[in-house]
Design goal:
Layout (H helix, E strand, L loop, with lengths): L1 E14 L4 E3 L4 E2 L3 E17 L7 E4 L2 E2 L2 H15 L8 E7 L9 H16 L6 H11 L3 H4 L4 E4 L12 E5 L6 E8 L8 H11 L3 H21 L2 H20 L10 H15 L4 E4 L6 E6 L3 H9 L4 E7 L6 E2 L1
Parallel strand pairs: 5-7
Antiparallel strand pairs: 1-4, 1-14, 2-3, 4-7, 4-8, 5-6, 8-9, 10-12, 10-13, 11-12
The structure holds (3R)-3-hydroxy-3-methyl-5-(phosphonooxy)pentanoic acid.
Length: 325
Amino acid sequence: MRTARARARSNIALVKYWGKRDEKRILPVTGSLSLTLDELWTETEVRFTGAPGEDELVIGGTRATEHEHRRASALLDLVRDGRPELGAARIDSTTSFPVAAGLASSASGFAALAAAAAWAAGDDPSDLQLSILARRASGSACRSVFGGFAEWRRGEREDGADSHGVQLLGPDEWQVAMAIAEVEAGRKEVSSRHAMRTARETSPYFPAWEAQTAIDLEQAREAIRRRDLESLGRVAERSAFAMHATCFTSEPPVFFWKPSTLAVLEAVRTLRAEGVAAYATIDAGPHVAVLCEAGQLGRVGEALRKVDGVRRVLEARPGPGVERR
Ligand code: PMV
């Protein structure tokens, strides 16, 4: 029996991935850029039993849902391709943060699963190969193979061989941090997969999103190279708000924000007025991640905790890429 265990961290995009040009291979319309976070991790063990049958997936001690199970098995099938002797898999996964809250758990989850599965099968993939494998399960997961700042290169090829993450800066090369305000969510959200497809197919703003993202990527790369937090923060806010603008203008429209989302954005503006470099970004949900200097993390976290409707605030620093455990 073949077993391997991997730990991967989540990442929060500063220039968002939003829209696929190939739904099956998960190839993006644009490149994207993110920060991998130390405190938000998933650790996964994969054991190939060598016997045919159903895969078994346990997340945090509980049997996975039908949907989670299907996505995990689809990734395992890519690893098992042409090697039926590997057989059914037993997968056991633990996460350091609440999965149900919608805090980018698919990125850490699928990066850890891709690595553990490939290693359990006896493969020795390069980081680029692992990134491509993780991408096939969840686009944003391809960036979590790398620590620190990572870019997902859009690529040009139809087979996706040039669409993968690359590292821009290691986790210790720039002392920044993120405070993530989890706001009261209520009703279940639309999935990012569904919302980005609707935006690409129906929003009149989508072509503008695509054109602007090329500019944002360029500016974000340059800001990271110069360690210029103000420039990077401005690009990050612009990218997040443009992404959400394609949702507001979708048919039917999608609103991920709650009233407390706006209240957190207001608190971030107040922090800036007080001289603290703090910049917000929002994924396909109501929570707000705030980029700041590492030395200001405590102050930013404290300000966000005071906002009405904020359930909890996670404080995170840049983290490493995927690791064998
Ligand atoms: O990788 P997915 O399918 O979970 O999509 C992620 C989309 C965003 O989180 C909204 C943006 C991003 O780049 O992570």
